[in-house]
């Protein structure tokens, strides 16, 4: 530093100027011409307590191919359980109830989840539920003097808006980076089955930022950081966040039902290409082209037809079919949406009440240890309501206690609490919220009721 200062002084003197010694940074003014220097510090100090670090421990099953000479004895492959540890981030959205949002991939297969606050406190977290297709998970911690972040309206975001990312990159501890909204409605990052409608930002996001907060300059949450494009393994200025409006709808469903009850329109379609736009006399290629409407679907009931071009959802313009798919699916079954549609050159509005998509599977271990190894979803068919077991892992606690794929849990009997008819997965989760003891379950198997004791 001294050498640099000497060179600067010499340069000033060489042109006939008097060198002035620079004051120490601590003595620099906080204001220029009577105005305070701009700083994000006040906003960061308000938001930081709501952003947490998430550490997990668990076991992953790895499959290993068996060499050809030994396959006669051991089969083609074997499974090996391997312990793992992971780090991520999360955001407190409800201080009174202790709800924390993070990514599904942060807590996937975790047996133990710890949440660390910025003030150094640590809580063991309970997994309320998660949604792999959108990469959202909801945790619950003790509501002990917590701070929640305020939520923005992510539908009002514009490219160029300033953003601030807060998280736990590389396990270093809480870190803040800034940037702008680089793009909106990004998709195509996953395997095609995921629901993607990402905010793209150039705020530095690295490994460990997953589940952290993306906020605006008011300190309001606009998204949950979830993914990066990193050919070199680090930040290259392209990060992605799930819009908070999507997150709100998903978390509300997970908290109420223990799962996401995904809405569905009942259409097939694709992107509005330039050729299709010209065919319909449109000057823009923003929108979703409807190629087929399924009979008796929500779209059919509302009057949509093949050839329609959907250009907005609830008054907000959409750019792609993927954006339409993500917004509709995360609204939730039974929700009513307004679709802006161009038909024969005229713009019309249709109100559509969404049907429920086929049920999502939830890992049963989050409800009771005796159910570990089973996957559950809500069941409502032929006048029977309950929770169906869609899958049972071999040699799991659920399999060892006699549960099988296709069983429908219609009633549970908890010690000192009596019998309760089971309506859906959310109610079952509530029944076991503070109960881990032995219980009896009445199940339907091939139409015949039977009772099993589970420990």
UniProtKB/TrEMBL annotation:
One of its GO terms (molecular function) is serine-type endopeptidase activity. The keyword DNA damage does not apply. It comes from the Bacteria. Residues 1-26 form the signal peptide. InterPro entries: PDZ, PDZ_sf, Pept_S1C_Do, Peptidase_S1_PA, Peptidase_S1C. The active site is at residues 105, 135, 210. Keywords: Hydrolase, Protease, Repeat, Serine protease, Signal. CDD domains: cpPDZ1_DegP-like (cd10839). Its EC number is 3.4.21.107, 3.4.21.108. One of its GO terms (cellular component) is periplasmic space. Residues 254-345, 351-413 form the PDZ domain. Belongs to the peptidase S1C family. This is Peptidase Do. It comes from Ferrimonas balearica (strain DSM 9799 / CCM 4581 / KCTC 23876 / PAT).
